[in-house]
Amino acid sequence: MSHQGKNKLLLMTGTTILVVLTLAALVVAAPDARPVLLILAGVIVLTALLGVAVAFIKYKRVEGRVSKLPECFRAAYLGAHELLGTCELSGADRRGILTMILEIFEHAALDDRTVEDVTGGDLAAFVDRFASEAGRAHTLGYRISYASALFIAFLLFLKAYQVLRTGTVSLATLRSETLDAGIIVTYFIISYAFFPWLLSAIRKSAREQWSGARRLKILIPMAIPVGLMAALILIDDPAFRAVADRPIPIFTTLLSVALGVALLVGTILLTGFFRRK
Q: Does the pTM exceed 0.70?
């Protein structure tokens, strides 16, 4: 597997390990931690595990054909795959570009050419020439729509949990079950700061081919969710708790829930639009 693939797997597995260890420490320090915080950690862990699975599946899909390439071209192809993952491209465009790159590498290998001969010594620039015709690096519009979709989805999920845990699904329960201000702010920061920073770290690691101890830098963004969860559980200052535990009435009517779902669908569509634009 290439440096880029290793970086991505390190990020996903490292995320899982850090959250699990942090969660264990917090539960020991604060055994009465609210279930909603455990769910927040669980969502992050499941997301990381899903990312590992997806990365592995994608790798296995092309392993047969790519494995026939010389080692240098194989590493370059996997690097190109990671670089294209940081660009706003549709699935069809990405697959088309990867097919072209694979064919170029196959012919180059048959002609006894080197990776440097084909890429000019700059794999990122080589890939960018293909990507620029169909898409570009993540834009502000893409990042905002992506973060908004995550934020709205989490609020809807958390509201559903709050209602379902009562054992009674009714309009009265919908109105009475609120979300704490601290939880809302926490996931707002995770959505609009943590995930964009994570995307930037993945892109930079792919372009600069981080290796060795340098790969550990892609775990730095994990300080955001870990720190926020720790603050919500461990800080007992009355002034802080008064703000963090303040109930916020959100999605208290069927109309507001419907609007939330509509916003979620809209932000997902916007994300797709900015990918294809």
A: no
